[in-house]
UniProtKB/TrEMBL annotation:
Any one GO molecular function term: pyridoxal phosphate binding
Superkingdom as given in the UniProt entry: Bacteria
The protein's enzyme class: transferase
Keyword Hydrolase: no
Entry annotated with the keyword Amino-acid biosynthesis: yes
Keywords from the UniProt entry: Amino-acid biosynthesis, Aminotransferase, Histidine biosynthesis, Pyridoxal phosphate, Transferase
Gene name of the encoded protein: hisC
Annotated Gene3D superfamilies: Aspartate Aminotransferase, domain 1 (3.90.1150.10), Type I PLP-dependent aspartate aminotransferase-like (Major domain) (3.40.640.10)
Protein name per UniProt: Histidinol-phosphate aminotransferase
PANTHER family: HISTIDINOL-PHOSPHATE AMINOTRANSFERASE (PTHR42885:SF2), HISTIDINOL-PHOSPHATE AMINOTRANSFERASE-RELATED (PTHR42885)
A matching Pfam family: Aminotran_1_2
Modification N6-(pyridoxal phosphate)lysine, positions: 210
Organism, as annotated: Arcticibacter tournemirensis
């Protein structure tokens, strides 16, 4: 059975007439803008921001297209990946009727967004090796299951999920399969972007918040078929990415070499820090990582977390998360930050 977007799109979204902004209503070049009730005199800043930004962020998408190897019309930019996640719920899931599948332990915003939109969540935990439970996923799917969220590399476990297992889900599910690749830049696995032409139900999420170092700008990306991207653009607010963020993102996207340098150093520091932590008596295991963080199993996660807080070091206590009992999630810092962490932990008495 071939995937058909119209079978899962909400009727009100099919019939939705999107807001038409002033900048959508003309083609070509113009020099006098008297259409959007902006302040024509400028801004009380060195850089003028009195004009509304490009609603579809074309210049940024064109640069992303060159980097990612995918046409601009297959790219959506959102106010963080969280906006893309929320749009997926609002466009495809009927409140109180439909459901989605998540695979805990995983990124918490899938469930939060589901709860906000009154959409049921079916949880199929990963295996003890943090891989997909394909049988459990197949059993959880029902006629009202619209989306399966797969995070790879996974947060908080840091590992990549087996590619062939993800492909099995893509080939056998008639709803959307969303692969969250927020940490893909640190992974040995390649992105699923090149599979967009093969799977019409595939949506890939990425971000400029991690490897690109732009968390403060809040720019998330979704890659999908032109048809699905059209739905995103129909539902999103007209000017969801501000002008300053677009300009700064474009500057950053022209500095790929610096980002690649940071990625290499992060991976090197990941190995160094892991080796140092494994020497500590309260560390039981460090799980394999394809991300810019590590999941560390300890003898007393809460006590270690509180000890570090007292010394001004903040990590993430994940010990109450399913399959992460006793675990801390530690982001890879600079060499100096990692040294401070290691030296401080040497003073911890279990």
């Amino acid at each position: 059975m071939k995937f058909d977007l119209n079978n899962i799109l909400r009727t009100n979204i099919k019939n939705l007439v999107p807001y038409s902004s002033a900048r959508d209503e003309f083609q070509g070049e113009a020099s006098v803008f008297l259409d959007a009730n902006e302040n024509s005199f400028g801004s009380p800043l060195d850089t003028p921001y009195n004009r509304y930004p490009d609603p579809l962020q074309y210049v940024v998408k064109k640069r992303l297209s060159e980097i990612k190897g995918v046409p601009p019309q297959n790219i959506f930019l959102g106010n963080g990946s969280d906006e893309a996640i929320d749009i997926l719920f609002r466009a495809f899931c009927r409140p109180g009727i439909d459901n989605v599948i998540t695979l805990p332990p995983t990124y918490g915003m899938y469930e939060v967004s589901a709860n906000i939109n009154d959409v049921a969540v079916k949880k199929v935990p990963l295996t003890v090796n943090y891989q997909l439970n394909l049988e459990g996923i197949a059993e959880a799917i029902d006629p009202n299951t619209k989306i399966i969220f797969i995070c790879s590399p996974n947060n908080p476990t840091a590992n990549s999920l087996y590619r062939e297992d993800i492909e099995t889900v893509l080939a056998n599910f008639q709803g959307l399969v969303v692969i969250d690749e927020a940490y893909i830049n640190y992974s040995k696995q390649k992105t699923f972007i090149q599979e967009l032409t093969e799977y019409s139900n595939l949506v890939i999420l990425q971000t400029l918040s991690k490897a690109w170092g732009l968390a403060g700008l809040r720019i998330g990306m979704a890659f999908a078929s032109e048809e699905i991207i059209g739905v995103f653009n129909k539902v999103k607010p007209p000017y969801n990415i501000n002008q300053a963020s677009q300009e700064l993102a474009l500057d950053a996207l022209n500095n790929v070499e610096k980002v690649n340098e940071w990625i290499r150093e992060t991976i090197q520091q990941r190995e160094t820090l892991s080796a140092q932590l494994m020497l500590m008596p309260f560390v039981e295991k460090i799980y394999p990582s394809d991300a810019n963080f590590i999941l560390v199993k300890t003898t007393n996660a809460r006590a270690i977390y509180e000890f570090l807080v007292q010394h001004g070091i903040i990590v993430r206590d994940r010990s109450k998360v399913i399959l992460c009992e006793g675990c801390l999630r530690i982001t890879i810092g600079t060499p100096e930050e990692n040294t401070i962490l290691s030296e401080t932990l040497k003073k911890f008495q279990d």
